[in-house]
Amino acid sequence: MTELKYYAKLLQLGKITRREFMGRAAAAGATVAMSSTLASKALKAATPMKGGHLRTGLGHGSTTDSLDPATYENAWVSGVNMHLHNHLAEIDATGKLAPELAQSWEASDDAATWRFKIRKGVEFHNGKTLDANDVVASINHHRGEDTISAA
């Protein structure tokens, strides 16, 4: 087995990172294009493993970030929000608005009044069942006179 194939196998098994692979391939004399091709082939061939870590590269993030949705001001904390909180509706795979916590909704003719039917059986992490008062409190958190929310 050549040195590059050996490193590709280590990458495939998760024993080294892509960055380590690229460094070792460069030290072995491989060009960037060659090592990138080998790395992508090794990673595509890797069999799925249960567990592990998901690493993502995101811009932003700062010491002022919090989990209070009224204070979100950058892409990083907004992305975290999408993984921690549910929403009344979401955008589905076809790009259309789809129900999430709301089962359905309708607007008055002038769109001044909206009625949402909340999905049954939704529980918070503490076991409390979601109800209309929770939804109203969330909306009011963003629109009250003393709010700091940009929403």
Write a brief caption for the model.
The protein is an alpha+beta fold. The chain contains five helices and four strands; from the N terminus they run H-H-H-H-E-E-E-E-H.
What does it look like?
The protein has 151 residues and is of the alpha+beta class. Helices cover 37% and strands 11% of the residues. The strands form two sheets. The chain has a two-stranded antiparallel ribbon with strand order 1-2. Strands 3-4 form a two-stranded antiparallel sheet.
Please provide the ordered H/E string of secondary-structure elements.
Answer: HHHHEEEEH
- Give the tally of β-strands: 4
- DSSP helix fraction: 25-40%
Q: What is the count of DSSP helices, taking H or I runs of 4+ residues?
A: 5
Structural class: alpha+beta
Strand order of the largest sheet: 1-2
Q: Beta-sheet strand percentage?
A: 5-15%
Shape: elongated
Question: What's the mean pLDDT score?
Answer: 82
Termini separation comes to 58 Å
User: What's the main sheet like?
Assistant: 2 strands, antiparallel
Radius of gyration: 24 Å
The poorly predicted ranges are none
